[in-house]
Write a structure and sequence with these properties.
The complex is a heterodimer of chains A (about 260) and B (about 290). With about 260 residues, chain A is mainly α. Helices cover about 75% and strands about 0% of the residues of chain A. A two-stranded antiparallel sheet of chain A has the order 1-2. Chain B has helices at about 1-15, 25-50, 60-65, 70-100, 105-120, 125-135, 140-145, 160-185, 190-195, 200-230, 235-240, 245-255, 260-290. In chain B, about 40% of the residues are buried. Classes of the chains: A mainly alpha (about 260), B mainly alpha (about 290). Chain B: It holds the Pfam family BPD_transp_1.
């Protein structure tokens, strides 16, 4: 609509794809291509092999995948619990109180993840709470990082919620706890699902804080990808990256399907 | 009977239940946050003023500020973040403009692809760039195939320019999303009127679209600025000794050198810069209504 002539339109589109494809589509394609290649020393990869996937789904790499999945699921559930609770509590407060809670729970987004990792490491390496060297320190750090996003998306959903439903329920004599369980939470379910997907994706790809505090027996997938590529096995690293992306996408897809079902209610 | 059931809720509404005030419900999550996040952060600040020799002094700060490694990292971090933000804004504005106002079949799919792109971790971009511009990657391979030279001309990946390219690639979608949302609010009739009155596309962009998009640009730009300042994965995967940013310095001081007071000082500086800018972002985006 901005460009009316046929020629102008085509020129704009060609320019668009000349920028878009090499910058955004090429990187992802290149990783997929490399994960199947035996070598890459000219313009295109040479040789086709599934061997990198064999290496990526055995031994330490397979363990890294399950580690990441367990970490991401536990961190997402914890973050959802704390984030939803905080968002519901904040919505009931007056404006100034809500501002304080907003600022507190959004703070982990602004603080660099590396510093979150350092802080958790410093705080939980000494008594009374020694978590350093256990898997819990990784799960804890991931929970801190993703809670902010759970809080943000749930509070945005609460603002959009029609207050008429809970007012109707309350005027019919429902106690606040009943309104919360039977009215508010079911209405929030689609956004809770979306928040869970977001938290899961973020936790699956978290590298900065994890690098600061992972114990040797609890090494998530991004750290494993770094360790492998740092040793020079770029192709196995690509196969692991493809597995990471596919898992994230599958879970996001699954979550969005639940959401469409829930929105019929 | 009927009047009793009717009157009870009315009383309740008019006279809120005594008992716990509402802020009590906010206490448990705040307590958890304080324990696992605010208290550790306070410990970092505390440790930054406690050198290994004991006591409390500002000596760690003096040491770190005096070191050339820190000053270099600070400079690199700031110029990389500023450069990447400007690049993301220009590129994101141009691409979003085409998607919104020169629509083509498949435009929806492109917008969806951008959403998917956002859910991937940043270090994947650096990994991909190794295959595209690395010493034996696609671009250099093409060059040596065509010219027969021993090595290609693309050797910028381990320099700050490689980090800049990766950051612009990864963060541009973060600018495009709020922009696309803002563009969808613009009445297309406005553009048609401007165009029928004889305005050229450049003038329509400048005088009709840009003013409407300014809040979204400001919000997206400041978000990207903060994220670039905090970016770690891209720099780590680049593996360049010459590119050290503040988060990278925190990591290498704490994990590789076990210099915790030094790491804490750099962390405090990094937090101050990022949180200050993030506060600005919140103010701007609240004004923008984004």
């Amino acid at each position: 609509m901005l460009v009316h002539s046929r020629k102008g339109k085509w020129a704009t589109w060609v320019l668009f794809f000349a920028l878009f494809l090499p910058l955004f589509a090429l990187p992802l394609l290149v990783i997929v291509a490399a994960s199947f290649a035996t070598s890459w020393s000219s313009a295109l990869p040479t040789g086709f092999t599934g061997g990198h996937y064999q290496a990526a789904t055995s031994g330490a790499s397979l363990q890294a995948l399950t580690t990441s999945l367990v970490t991401a699921v536990s961190a997402s559930l914890l973050a959802l619990l704390i984030g939803t609770w905080a968002a519901l509590a904040a919505a009931a407060l007056k404006k100034s109180g809500r501002r304080v809670l907003d600022a507190l729970f959004m703070l982990p987004v602004a603080v660099p993840s590396v510093v979150v990792g350092l802080a958790v490491l410093v705080a939980f390496s000494k008594p009374p709470m020694v978590l350093n060297g256990t898997r819990w320190i990784v799960i804890l750090a991931h929970t801190i990082l993703v809670t902010a996003f759970a809080y943000q998306s749930v509070s945005a959903a609460i603002v959009r919620l029609d207050p008429a439903y809970e007012q109707a329920a309350a005027s019919l004599g429902a106690r606040p706890s009943y309104v919360l369980w039977k009215v508010k939470l079911p209405l929030l379910l689609p956004s809770l699902n979306a928040a869970a997907g977001l938290c899961f994706a973020l936790s699956m790809g978290e590298l900065s804080a994890t690098m600061m505090l992972y114990p040797p027996d609890w090494m998530p997938l991004p750290v494993q990808i770094y360790a492998i590529t740092d040793r020079g096995s770029l192709f196995t690293g690509s196969a692991l990256s493809v597995i990471l992306m596919t898992t994230t996408l599958l879970v996001l897809l699954l979550v969005s399907r639940i959401r469409t079902k829930a929105s019929y209610r | 009977m009927a009047s009793a059931t009717l009157s009870a809720p009315v009383n309740k509404a008019a006279n809120p239940r005594k008992g716990m005030p509402k802020w009590v419900w906010a206490l448990p999550p705040v307590a958890v946050l304080a324990l696992v996040f605010l208290y550790p952060l306070a410990l970092v600040v505390q440790q930054s003023v406690q050198p290994d020799t004991g006591g409390t002094s500002l000596k760690p700060y003096a040491d770190v500020f005096a070191s050339s490694a820190f000053r270099e990292a600070l400079g690199t971090t700031v110029w990389l973040a500023l450069g990447a933000t400007v690049g993301c804004l220009v590129l994101g504005f141009a691409l979003a403009l085409v998607i919104a106002f020169v629509p083509f079949p498949g435009g929806k799919a492109v917008a969806k692809f951008i959403d998917v792109f956002l859910s991937f971790p940043s270090f994947l971009i650096t990994l991909a760039l190794l295959f595209v511009y690395g010493s034996v990657g696609m671009a250099n391979g093409l060059w040596t195939d065509v010219t027969g030279a021993a090595s290609g001309p693309f050797q910028f990946l381990t320099t700050p320019w490689g980090v800049l390219l990766a950051e612009i690639t990864y963060f541009t979608p973060f600018v495009m999303r709020p922009l696309l949302a803002a563009f969808s609010q613009i009445e297309t009739a406005q553009l048609e009127v401007a165009s029928s009155l004889g305005a050229k596309p450049a003038r329509i962009i400048r005088q009709v679209i840009l003013p409407e998009a300014l809040p979204a640009l400001a919000a997206g730009g400041s978000l990207v600025l903060v994220m670039c300042l905090n970016e770690f994965g891209i720099v780590l995967f680049t593996g360049a000794k010459g590119v050290t940013t503040l988060p990278m310095l925190v990591y290498s001081k704490a994990i590789l050198e076990s210099d915790y007071p030094g790491a804490c000082v750099v962390a405090v500086v990094n937090v101050l810069i990022s949180v200050g800018l993030y506060g600005l972002y919140r103010v701007v985006s609240r004004r923008a209504g984004a």
